[in-house]
Amino acid sequence: MKTTIAEVGKHVGQEVTVGAWLANKRSSGKIAFLQLRDGTGFIQGVVPKNDVEEETFQLAKDVTQESSLYVTGVVREDERSPSGYELTVSKLELIHEAVDYPITPKEHGTEFLMDHRHLWLRSRKQHAIMKIRNEIIRATYEFFNNEGYVKVDPPILTANSAEGTTNLFHTTYFDEDAFLSQSGQLYMEAAAMALGKVFSFGPTFRAEKSKTRRHLIEFWMIEPEMAFMDHEDSLKVQEEYVSHVVQSVLNNCTQELDVLERDRSKLENIQAPFPRITYDEAVELLHKEGFDDIEWGEDFGAPHETAIAEKYDKPVFITHYPTDIKAFYMKPDPEREEVVLCADLIAPEGYGEIIGGSERIDDEELLKQRYDEHNLSEEAYKWYMDLRTYGSVPHSGFGLGLERTVAWIAGVEHVRETIPFPRLLNRLYP
Q1: Band of the pLDDT at 160, cuts 50, 70, 90?
Q2: Same domain, 308 and 385
Q3: If both were cysteines, with which of 7, 68, 169, 347 could 408 make a disulfide (CB 3.0 to 4.6 Å apart)?
Q4: pLDDT (average), residues 207-227
Q5: How far apart are the C-alpha atoms of 113 and 134, rounded to whole Å?
Q6: Are 102 and 84 in contact (CB under 8 A)?
Q7: CB 65 within 8 A of CB 23
Q8: 351-404: per-residue pLDDT in tens?
Q9: What is the domain extent for residue 44?
Q10: What's the domain count of the chain?
Q11: By the 8 A CB rule, do 128 and 148 touch?
Q12: Strand pairing class (85-96; 176-180)
């Protein structure tokens, strides 16, 4: 009976066949232990010399790392195994012999591993990170589908940008200029005016020459937009969504979190509501912490965000940033126009901002004023103005960066390990 490693628990005491790769092995004179993986999980295959044919045991001793095999054996329960099971092997069939696999069970430098990212993905740790990423994506669709949102796909090639053309990748679209999208937000606003509550999930690109552990050139964003929702409504959606995702990972990725040695206690209390402080309060807090360099009206850097996050054991919203340092489309606070109705959600443990969101300007005249202040072409952005001209309503939205969220939940230091094939400042290979 053919099965997968993830499904062997359904066949305890039965003989099964699994297609697998050899991750590692060790052997003594009378027994060989094969660490097997098939993409769905990892399991140990035990090959007792006295219970198998001679050529089977010889193959178990000789087979090389990352060779592919059909492994036949009886499924046994084993409390010592991370999966709870092992295979007592009766037969091995070599599919392909791997020779001189470059990533051996020893320490390798980061650049070497990045050059071999296509193979590094096979390792137990990287496998665990990708499974957690997948669970976050699954839980995202689950949350928004259950809440009545419609999935909409904004374009990747755009004629203009959500936040100005700084740090965008330029290309030629036949005989006119185009850019790779840095956000689908403006298009999602149009979709919200048609469908009410929408969300997108897709790649975004920023030509930002940054080498920090939080930045990628190509990354994935989840961007909901909601008609008839104000800033406060949006904050509630954000904290409920993040709580749902974290609890889903805790419930469905136990083995993966163990592989990564993630302290699950730091995730177990991530449930709504989240604490909130204003930008004013954040500046005051930073001054008390010795950050005399930050002045009102300046954006926060990574050290500032980390210092603020250390005061909380949950993600924290920083709200009401100065108007001058935020995007043109953010709605000013009616009671204080020098700040906008926005929030950044800062993850605990030094992982920085994972969500940025705001209530959007819904007044046509104010948006025209913003066009002038930001030197935006009224012709290029006419379609965006039409959303205010024809049936404008209060509306809000936000964007969550997938890779930073994976890094935080999985406890991974650098975002380069949270995406299958990272695009970094000096890396376009493989």
Answers
A1: confident
A2: yes
A3: 347
A4: 94
A5: 22
A6: no
A7: yes
A8: 999 999 999 999 999 999 999 999 999 999 999 999 999 999 999 999 999 999
A9: 2-96
A10: 2
A11: no
A12: unpaired
**CA dihedral sign of residues 304, 308, 310, 316:** negative
| H-only helix segments in 253-392 | 254-259, 265-268, 279-288, 302-309, 364-373, 382-389
166 lies in the same domain as 65: no
pLDDT at 210: 87
**Cα 369 from Cα 358, distance rounded (Å):** 18
The tens digit of pLDDT for each residue in 325-349 reads 999 999 999 999 999 999 999 999 9
Mean pLDDT estimate for the chain: 96
Length of the chain: 430
- Contact status, residue 230 vs residue 394, Cβ threshold 8 Å: yes
Asked whether residue 259 falls in the same domain as residue 390, the answer is: yes
* Domain CATH code at residue 6: 2.40.50.140
Q: 407-418 pLDDT, tens per residue? A: 999 999 999 999
- Do 166 and 152 touch, CB atoms closer than 8 A? no
Question: What angle do the packed helices 279-288 and 302-309 form, to 10 degrees?
Answer: 90
Q: Hey, is 251 helix, strand or coil?
A: helix
Assess whether pLDDT exceeds 70 at residue 164. Answer: no
Q: Which SS3 state, helix, strand or coil, does residue 153 take?
A: coil
Is there a contact between 65 and 22 (Cβ–Cβ < 8 Å)? yes
* pTM over the 0.85 mark: yes
What's the average model confidence in pLDDT over 85-107? 97
| Per-residue pLDDT, 215 | 93
CATH code of the domain containing 248: 3.30.930.10
Domain-ending residue, one of 61, 96, 131? 96
Distance CA 123, CA 134 (A): 16
Q: Are residues 161 and 37 part of one domain?
A: no
With residue 93 as reference, give the H or E element that holds it: strand 85-96
